[in-house]
Amino acid sequence: MLDARINQDRLWRSHMAMAKIGATPGGGVGRLALTDLDKQARDLFVSWCREAGCEVRVDRLGNIFARRAGTDSGAAPVMTGSHLDTQPLGGRFDGIFGVLAGLEVVRALNDAGAATRRPLDIVVWTDEEGVRFRTGIMGSGVFCGLEKLEDALAKTDESGCGVAHELARIGYDGAEPVGGYPLHAYFEAHIEQGPVLEREGIAVGVVEGAQGSRRFRVTVEGEEGHAGTLPMTGRRDALLGAARMIHAINKVAFAHDPLPVITAGAIFVRPNSPNTVPGQAVFTIDSRHPDAATLAAIGEDMHAACAAIAKADNLALHFTQTSDSAPVAFDAACVDSVRAAALALGIAHRDIYSGAGHDACNLNHIAPTGMIFVPCEGGISHNEKENAKPEDLAAGCAVLLRVMAEWAES
Ligand code: HGY
Ligand code: MN
Ligand code: MN
User: Fold this and answer.
1) 201 alpha carbon, distance to own chain's centre
2) Residue 171 CB coordination number (10 Å)
3) Could you tell me which residues come within 8 angstroms of residue 333 by beta carbon, excluding any fewer than 6 positions away?
4) Burial of 180 from C-beta contacts in 10 A (0-12 / 13-18 / 19+)
5) Residues with a CB atom less than 6 Å from ligand 1
6) Burial track 32-42 (b if 16+ CB lie within 10 A, e otherwise)
7) Residues β-bridged to residue 288
């Protein structure tokens, strides 16, 4: 089995074919969860998996499971995967590499005519990015029992379009229950989305853990008015209030050491008219830190800062936490396997910590979990310029093959 070889060109060609779906003018990809473009990407992946002899199942939340049979069909599988949904102006590798690396492992084992004792599952998790339905790592979260299926199905996007509706519309409202089946181990390959590996000229990151994140949705209520006749004093300008709040939460970041990362990434204004004083502004906050207690304190500090501004500006405030993903330390045996595989393959590697969140952070709650990072150009991600090298993707994939082969026999 260990003589199976990753085909670097085939892995790269699969990425370039997938990148055509939702390609953006700036050279990236825009494929929001459960859109027609997401359906096209899912359909392409499923067709490739069937060509590779996998049995494909879809659960009620649209998570896709492509299984390569093992000699012991009753054994709990070794699982790998990631996501095919992207940011609005995202890259060709974030998530996609983890899915296509799993497919390449299957293709390489097929080429070698190699059998594994345990089945291998390649998974596409629904709505990892949480752009459209606002939570993030949703599909894996429900699979791991961290979120209720009913709550996920009831989520809507800004236009009021729901998860359940969209799953049915694109034909991925599967019959399988979500989660509840044994898993031997989970490994996820992903680009680093940071500068360390590239800066040090290292091909593989042995991921020890990931920082925690909490998201919030902040609604600021004021009163609409005529831009020309409403005096400046006494206005209840919701957008001005939100702007002051966004500035204030940014200052909260610099009150903590080590620094958290805090981002107000999306804002929605009502009525969003150039000559009406805004009566409502809704903005999102993404906050992250490696320490759970500090993450909680940051949330309280941001809420207090927004409440003080709302009071001073005579505005109503609704400050709602929408997700909470605790910091994780991946399973030591999995981390050791990744490190040993890179060593055995003669691939330069180093331990690394993830600033980004991943589905693996959820899987780590229910099964031994590890991650494999590869460099991305300039550490750039969530950006159309996101780029990676074929040889780095192949190196990361070779490590994935080796650890999956090892755990498939344990
Ligand atoms: O936001 C994240 O950390 C991930 O890239 N979705
Ligand atoms: Mn990702
Ligand atoms: Mn991402």
Assistant:
1) 25
2) 12
3) 368
4) exposed
5) 94, 128-129, 136, 356-357
6) bbbbebbbbbb
7) 213, 261
Both tokens assigned to 322: 């929408």
Ligand 1 atom nearest to 136, measured from its CA: 6
Q: Measure the CA dihedral 256/260/261/266, to 10°.
A: -70
* Probe target for ligand 1 pocket from 85, 140, 193, with the most ligand atoms within 8 Å of CB: 193
The average confidence (pLDDT) of the chain is 97
pLDDT score recorded for residue 1: 59
What does the alpha-carbon distance between residue 363 and residue 188 come to, in Å, rounded to a whole number? 10
Residue identifier of the C-alpha nearest atom 6 of ligand 1: 129
Cα(59) to centroid(ligand 3), Å? 22
Q: What is the pTM of this model?
A: 0.97
CA 185 to mean position of chain CA atoms:
19
Domains and CATH numbers, the chain: 8-210+327-409 (3.40.630.10), 212-325 (3.30.70.360)
Q: Give the integer Cα–Cα distance in Å for 132 and 239.
A: 22
Partners of 319 in beta bridges: 218
pLDDT of 177-222, one tens digit each?
999 989 999 999 999 999 999 999 999 999 999 999 999 999 999 9
How buried is residue 89: exposed, middle or buried, by Cβ count under 10 Å (0-12/13-18/19+)? middle
Collect the ranges in the chain with pLDDT lower than 70: 1-2
